[in-house]
TrEMBL record:
Its EC number is 1.1.1.378. SUPFAM superfamilies: NAD(P)-binding Rossmann-fold domains. Pathway: Carbohydrate degradation; L-rhamnose degradation. It is an enzyme of class 1 (oxidoreductase). It comes from the Bacteria. It comes from Nitrospirillum viridazoti CBAmc. This is L-rhamnose 1-dehydrogenase (NAD(P)(+)). Keywords: NADP, Oxidoreductase, Rhamnose metabolism.
Length: 253
């Protein structure tokens, strides 16, 4: 029960990494508020899974790219659950596309969701944590793509590098308030964001073969690291970036 008595807010919490993190945070004792933009039924399933664990939960539908969505999400969580102890910035998109003919709208939408959305949401959560005066923890889901390139991800990798950098700067800006800021950098995790890219069995096998642990990741692989960084076990960890990639980054030979 590492998060007993805490309230956790997670963006993009209806599926993938956000869903797994939300349920594991509840399993660790937290009440959870999720933001989502997709299917209402998926969000309701997450809320049901959390309440089945004996914790409170709400789902708020909004687009993180809208600056007004951030304070509204935080206010809804405070009204329903009483406060904000942990914030997980997870919402993101990656519409794979070649660089030379990248549509302006695809680039701008990716930037607005992944980077601007993270900024606004983290800022709103941090403002509430400062008002509460009891510190807190902020975790951003960056990516191995913050460290390496991708041919069809020229719009995506800069946003994930930005999220990683945002956590480093926020660790400095918010440390005096007792707020810790860290990022997790997942490798290839099987989620809706890359299901089309991984649809080819040969490509999946080739990618898995490059990973020292011998398999692609699943959302639940990120849940444990997020719970750890959210908990008091990581009370002296801030400005850090935790690779969760099965060893893919170090496998250069």
């Amino acid at each position: 029960m590492l998060l007993q008595g805490k309230t956790v807010l997670i963006t993009g919490g209806s599926q993938g990494i956000g869903r797994a993190a939300a349920i594991d945070c509840a399993r660790a004792g937290a009440d959870v508020a999720i933001n989502y933009l997709g299917d209402e039924g998926e969000a309701a399933e997450v809320v049901a899974a959390i309440t089945a664990l004996g914790r409170r939960a709400i789902a708020v539908r909004s687009d993180v790219a809208d600056p007004e969505a951030a304070p509204a999400f935080v206010q809804a969580a405070v009204a329903a659950l009483g406060g904000v102890d942990v914030f997980v910035s997870n919402a993101g998109i990656c519409p794979f596309h070649a660089f030379l003919d990248m549509p302006v709208d695809v680039l701008e939408r990716t930037m607005r969701v992944n980077l601007h959305g993270a900024y606004f949401m983290v800022q709103a959560a941090a403002q509430r944590m400062v008002e509460q005066g009891r510190g807190g923890a902020i975790i951003a889901v960056s990516s191995i793509s913050a460290l390496v390139g991708g041919e069809y991800q020229t719009h995506y990798t800069p946003t994930k590098a930005g999220v990683h950098s945002l956590m480093q700067s926020c660790a400095i800006a918010l440390g005096r308030h007792g707020i810790r800021c860290n990022s997790v950098l997942p490798g290839t995790i099987q989620t809706a964001i890359n299901q089309d890219d991984l649809a080819d069995p040969e490509k999946r096998a080739r990618m898995a073969a490059r990973i020292p642990l011998g398999r692609l990741g699943v959302p639940e692989d990120l849940a444990g690291p997020i719970v750890f960084l959210a908990s008091d076990m990581a009370r002296y960890v801030t400005g850090a970036a935790l690779l969760v990639d099965g060893g893919a980054f170090v496998n250069l030979q």
